[in-house]
Input
Amino acid sequence: MKAEDSEAAAQPRPDSAPLLIATGIEKAFDRTRALAGAELDVYPGEVMGLLGANGAGKSTLSKVISGHLTRDAGSITLRDRPLNLRSAREAIGYGITMVMQETSLAPDLSVLENVFLAELGRPGILFYRRLKRRAEEILDRLGQKETLPLDREVRLLSAAQRQLVEIAKALALNSTLIIFDEPTASLSPPEVERLFQVMTTLKRSGHTLVFVSHRLEEVFAITDRVTVMREGRTVAKSLETASLRQAELIRLMVGQEMKEVLPIGPNRTARPSQTAVFEVRNLGSAPVVRDVSFKVHRGEILGLGGLVGAGRSETVEALFGLRPRQRGELYLGGKQYAPRRAADAIRAGIGFVAEDRRVQGIVPDFSVRENLLLGHMAASRKFGLGYSQRKAKLDDLIQKLGLPAERLDTNILNFSGGMQQKIIIARWLLLEPSLLILDEPTKGVDIGTRTSIYAMLRQVAGTGVGVIVISSDFEELLSLCERVVVMSDGASIADVPSEMLNEEKLTLFAAPRTSMEQNSAILRDIARDLNGAAFWTLVDQGRLFCLYTSVINDQADPGFRAGDTPMIGDTRIPAALSSRSEALVLERENQLATLLVSVRSDRGHDMGWIGVTLDSRTSLAPAQQLRDRIESFLGRIIKPQ
Amino acid sequence: MKTNGINSTNAQRSLVSDLVGQLEIRMLALALALGAALSILSPHFLTSNNLLNVLDQSVVVGIVAIGMTFVILIGGIDLSVGSVAGLTGVLLGRGLEHLTIPFAIVLAVLAGMTIGLFSGFLIAHFGLPSFVVTLGVMAIGRSLAYIFSGATAIADLPENFGNIVYTNIFGIPAHVLTLLMLYAMAWAYLNFTKGGRTVYAIGSNREAARTAGLNVLGFSILPYVISGGLSAVAITFASAQVMSIDPLAGTGLELDAIAAVVIGGASLYGGRGSIIGTLIGVLIMVMIRNGLNLLNVSPFWQGSAIGAVIITAVLIERLLSSRAFSR
Output
């Protein structure tokens, strides 16, 4: 077997002795063996990736090492001394902390109090001023002094900020070994970036980190070495990340050769029909959703992209009747549609898989059958259950899911997260909807199940259903969806075929407008200063991706607006855009003169062009002078990561 | 084949654990054990007269406990049942002065349902804690009971009013039959109707029920309406048993009802529990009282005994279920 080859292969031995060695760890929960011979070596000062599919035992192993669980068998040594922990408290004493998947913070206490939560448990008086100084020092060390107001209550923080609090808490306890359990699960790409910066800072200051994840890209981005787990066992120990290839890791994780994992690629050969299943016009739903418009066609998978907090979940909840709407019209199958409650939406033929499976999806005390039939219950107007009328469809569905019929009446909690998610999706398929909405359908789902969910959605779309997918995973969005509607600060700002996008462009589009308000203001200042129009756009293969525009002088309208993606030829300034020269370019067709200035990120990435268009009939300054004027403004521009 | 062997042992194991996992069966075993113990301790326990006595004493708590089961299944609590019973009893008494018996009873039940609707609306629509709302209603109910009764018992009830208890149908007293019928109806409703399953779904995961489009608001109010209505039904039988209506009637009924539901295995967090379990819980409680009386134990010890049973039942339940369901 190939997997074994690589197990035997390179096992690097660094010079120093390992900080922690775990061997032969076993742990069973009642009938389920979560760990059956797990191993992990961690060397001081490294970032160790602990990789595995869902249910591989990564979290359990982490919890055993950090004292949250006691092991049934096996041994752990810390600095060559045996370590037998009975509680997480004891682990903290040894400098081991775990930053949990679901943060273990007290929501009503302030950031400061949470950072020093352990101190609150000690007898004596608290000296807030001293604690505050220490907290500031810790955040300063992390380079995150600005991002975390110490007196803010934790429940008001974003997921990313909470995680920082957890990290600060670990540092306040003088932890040397910090285990991050799936820390990126609910973060947006820029937040992940920031987390990685923090992790790098920690590593430099001599901390040892374990990074638990099932996302390969992240493992490659941040770890020094990788340990792979599968079905409760360690299948590859301390492989050097740099020496690894993605395919190899996937094989280790799933234990079999998988032809394609992520990039199935959107179904571009079979064009979805142009009949709109569903249309939203100028939807407004206080407080987050301000102005959202888009269309979904029959058989199309439409992505709803953007950052966490852009109002995507709120938008689809409003469409599904779970939130009141103040503005806008909805059309389903060409007819006006105005749901007042979710049952209206369901009866009209919409299904909705919410973001948080545990909180919004499953009914934990119900069997698989009853969970499957929950949508039917909402749609039915009968007094009785009427389960029998769905029997044929139900049998068909569970067969497609690969769910043994005899397990239909067992509790849903006996199934893996991935299967639970498929059951929730099937809950709506049972009703044969015309529109299916999924909010982060692969969150916390392992790589194998992810692929099968993609296949499932593709197949559903193939039957003519319109599918809307929200995802913060841009790679997923681009590979799954035919078209992406980008949202930012509660408004839809771009509607682009995904083949024209890549992750960078999507990130630029998705940048929150509020924090980018300054950029709009700068463009406005430039446009006003020169009495013309100013814009910031990307140009790719003859097409624009316009991020901002400000048109002060209508005579100088370049012919596109923020969020537009026209071909160069369709704008009013084709000559300037196609030459992209240093000079001031005059259009032949009209009286417009345009000057473009290239923008680069701090890392040297191409960030497109900032341009001004002027009415050439007015007296024009020389190009260099204009350029200097523009660049004098650009110092203030904010560039997304 | 090795895999088959594993499967079949798993199947056997799950059959046993399924049976143990069935909380009604565990509770029934407990009730039977208690009955057996009492019949050994007292020769008077296992007589048909005494068993009818046990059922007779179960009626009032039993009926209130049905409503309480609904409320607890959605994760709420109804502390007002005792004083709603008191108030609707007084209203019944006043009604009987002017109206026919059936009409007066219907009016009392409607009054109980209205009070339940009021509490339920406040709880479900405004998201107020059920504990607080029903605590308030409990105080108001008792106070109104005093006011409407003039703080004295109403004893001059029509003579045939007692018939609702003492008429025998198929040899079973009418009120016991009503009790059993109400349990049968509640059982069918909770298990085989959309509304019943919605009640469970709300208690198990309110947010998921809402997201799946179930009528969460309506079915969060309904249990309080049922509870209020059944409090009135219960006090009707209680009044007929003693042929007198006291504004103090029903005091402490909420605790007995909650105890019965909890002994019956329901989770106070909602979503878990059964109406059969509640019936067994009621019987266990009444049997303990009855048994202690037969054994000439001072009534002051009854509270201790019931309390010990509640705690033991919940403890056993926790130990068993953590073994059966832990993952």
